[in-house]
Amino acid sequence: MKAPFNSLITSNKFYQIIGIVFLVYSTIFIILNLNFPFVGYDSGYYLAVARDVYSGKTYFTDIAVPYTPLSILSLGIPFLFENYLNLSHHLAINYLILITCSIILFSIVNKTLENKSISFLLSCFFLAVCLYHDGEHLMLEPISIFFQLLSLKLIYKNKKNLPIHFILSGVCISLSFLAKQLGLFIILPILIYILYCEKSILKKLLYIVLGISLPIISLYIFYSLHESLNLEQFILHIIGKGVEFETGVGTGVNDHFGFKVYKNFVFLNLYVILIPFLIKNVSNKTNDSKFSLLFYISLPFASFSVLLIAAYNHYFQFIIPYLIICFAYLFSLSKDKRLKYFFSILILISLGRLIDKSDSNFLNAEKKHLNQLNDINTLKKLIPNEAKVYLEEGVSKAYYGTNEFQSINSKLIGYTFPGYFSPKTIYNNLDDGAFLILSSKSKSKYLHYITNEELIKTHINSRDIYIYKKNK
What are the residues facing 343 on neighbouring strands? Predict the structure, then answer.
């Protein structure tokens, strides 16, 4: 009985079926969130910035923002055609990008494994687990990952190795950085890959550098001609230092070790347990294999660098594709049939974990959507659309997007997360008629400038909030 069972769960048919289950999960996830969209904390920030740009303001110079522009502008494309927020259209861009990433990942993995069934399973797994990691919200990571994977695909096991492939790969590295600064880590594995190619190394490096330079130089030319930014100012903006915050860097950095987040990630990616055993098998191969091993290990190694900044749930999206590519390479070289069996068992456990953790999210999608609509309408009765508003700590930045709130000072404050400017600075930048929304926690910080009698109390997102309108 044991042998037939082993054969069953290591068959291509089994991998295809499990891949389809991951695909069905992803489809349900996407349909639910498109029908019952929910604006998350970060999403409201991105939408507000994108809305301002598509209404005529210039990124960086007219809006204080520490993020590179490509992802935010891409997610805001529906504003070109609509003068109101339809979150489903913005979310659809995220989902199309993630689906495209899974297709590119399939083509990369299949070149290594030469097994379409396992490659299909791993690419569907990637999509499902990325969706689990904050996929219900607008996120910048998918667009950065798209250009990372595209840069890798252009040169990965490419027999032609034409100069244009390396130039375009460099362009994609640059675009990944311009989508989100953290995407720049892909340059390390690609440089190692070029060294691994051995032939015409210097030329290939020059082509890569040329490609990386083209989008950044083009962007600099725009800002130098239209906004009169000098080179130093431009560099400060694209590395996230162009805004003069009083404290912090403006990216919501979280330096707390989130054991629960890491635990969830490992349980959803249990196949990583096999990687040390696979490396041990491969380490006894030829020198060429050892050098190629360096490239494949550098992929997840470089991606883990994002966790040195923060361990937000969506940051793990950066790691998943490179763990999969590394695993696929090691798995392709293994001759131990037991590892194939253990892989099947682990992927089944991960699937069960994914479904178990997501069940409540699926059931609560409509409830969360309706509750947020109720909160949006509550605020509309108290604060007019397009009013200048600052949302303090404990109040979701979602309302910058949903209620079309404007920044109290676009060039200085923007839509920044709380904590980067003092209460004094925020209060002094409130014009006559501008609003300040406080939570119970943040209210005490402002009582030196306002009184309890000036606050209107209401209820948002199952908590008390306080609204202050500045009247000179």
Answer: none
